[in-house]
Amino acid sequence: MKHAPLSDQDYQRLETILQRFAAQGAMSLEQLDGFLAALLAGPESLSPQDCLPLILGDAFDDDDAFHNPKELERFARLVSGHWHDIAHALQHGDDFAPWLTPDAAGEVHGNDWAEGFYQGMQLMAEDWQLLFDDADAAPALAPILALAFERHPDPDMRPFIDGASRQQKDEWLGEIGAAVPAIHRFFAAIRARIEAEIAADEH
Asked: InterPro entries attached here (predicted)?
């Protein structure tokens, strides 16, 4: 089946809905992009439908958040559409371009994206440890975790106590495009190996 990506208008709708619920702890579109990238690149391709409470925050349980069930359904379809866009890019070896929203001054920081990715990692933290333990593959996580922890409330957890330089941030941001497909290939290889072992045992 041919992949039909979300349109610019779809993305505007998705961003508007998320902004509407920002005060209730909903993710921003940048955060959501990182979160879904982790779900797809990681140990198991988790469905975004199961994660709507995390995506919407308190708005998920707010009966007044959506005017009717169809509106929630439309939102879920948009999230699912974005998930499929990322999946298509990773499965077809396309360049991965993170959704990074500039601030009021036009600067891109990427912290929201990386924090969203890290939040996605926490859903299967034990299995992600396989990547941390692999000396060859683990460096792919370095730029993502550096950005994810740059604003950590505990200064000891930050990569630089006084914050990273603009040059350092640009380097991290530039590495994300290659890092996410590398992580996807790492876990895809593990899944393929397990499936091959199961198939061999069955014969």
From this structure: YgfB-like, YgfB-like_sf
The whole-number pLDDT of residue 203 equals 63
**Segment 163-170 mean pLDDT:** 89
* Residue 107 token pair: 């600067």
Task: Give the mean pLDDT of the chain.
Answer: 92
Q: Establish if 121 belongs to a structural domain.
A: yes
DSSP 23: G
- Give how many domains the chain has, as a whole number: 1
For residue 117, the domain's CATH number is 1.20.120.740
Nearest to 11 by CA among 101, 132, 89: 101
Give the whole-angstrom CA distance, residue 87 versus residue 93. Answer: 10
199 CB burial (10 A radius; 0-12, 13-18, 19+): exposed
Supply the range of the domain harboring residue 178: 8-202
Amino acid at 88: H
Q: What is the pLDDT of residue 197?
A: 83
Give the residue-averaged pLDDT of 167-179: 95
pTM over 0.85: yes
Q: Are 139 and 77 in contact (CB under 8 A)?
A: no
Contact 38, 118 (CB under 8 A): yes
